[in-house]
Amino acid sequence: MGAGKTSVGRVLAARLEVPFDDLDAMIVAEAGRPIPEIFRTEGEPGFRELEAQMLARALKTCRGVLALGGGAAMHPASRELLRGGPLVLLEISPELAAVRLGRGSGRPLLAGDADPMVRWRELALERDPVHQDLARWRIDAGRGSAAAVARGITDMMGQDLLAAPEKEDS
Questions:
Q1: Domain enclosing residue 144, as ranges
Q2: 17: in domain
Q3: pTM of the model
Q4: Is 159 inside a domain boundary?
Q5: Which of 67, 75, 93, 101 could form a disulfide with 5 if both were Cys (CB 3.0 to 4.6 A apart)?
Q6: By percentage, how much of the chain surpasses pLDDT 90?
Q7: Does 61 belong to an annotated binding site?
């Protein structure tokens, strides 16, 4: 949350000359209502189920960069769909998250009476092991602009491709 997935994703897609899609935007378009409303009426489990269904559809049609919300991998079906994929984890410090997220900024999981940053830290602790398990690449998204982060991602991807052993012809 607050890592810049949409901003970085758009720039990364432009650098790679591929389409950009945002799973949250796809969910809103499909549901015909904003995510906070889905959370209010369906709860988090209902939202995660819809998110998993939309992810399955998106992975069949998306031919570029697909930005996922921070909780997308928490649904078991989504986790299996993402396993082994070319996932990039955008990491930010709690301090930067506090600046970017302000007092919750309409995010359903940060809403309520609790301090949004206490809740952000709880979510980060819960999600981090899953994210670490699934991510092929990790980058500090708090250092520099979206363009600098996207450049760092393409650099990591390029190094990964260069380091991959050549496959023998069968």
A1: 5-150
A2: yes
A3: 0.80
A4: no
A5: 67
A6: 57
A7: no
Per the annotation, does 107 bind a ligand?
yes
Q: Is 5 annotated as a binding residue?
A: yes
Task: Please report the pLDDT score of residue 104 as a whole number.
Answer: 45
6 is an annotated ligand-binding site residue: yes
The answer to whether 133 is annotated as binding is no
Q: What's residue 141's pLDDT?
A: 86
Domain count, the chain: 1
Tell me if 24 is assigned to a ligand binding site: yes
Q: 144 a known binding residue?
A: no
Is 65 inside any structural domain?
A: yes
Residue 135, in any domain of the structure: yes
Ligand-binding annotation for 78, yes or no, is no
Q: Looking at residue 57, which CATH number applies to its domain? A: 3.40.50.300
Transcribe the chain into DSSP letters.
--S-HHHHHHHHHHHHT--EEEHHHHHHHHHTS-HHHHHHHHHHHHHHHHHHHHHHHHHHH--SEEE--TTGGGSHHHHHHHTTS--EEEE--HHHHHHHHTT-TT-GGG-SSS-HHHHHHHHHHHHHHHHHHH-SEEEETTSS-HHHHHHHHHHHHHHHHHHSPPPPP-
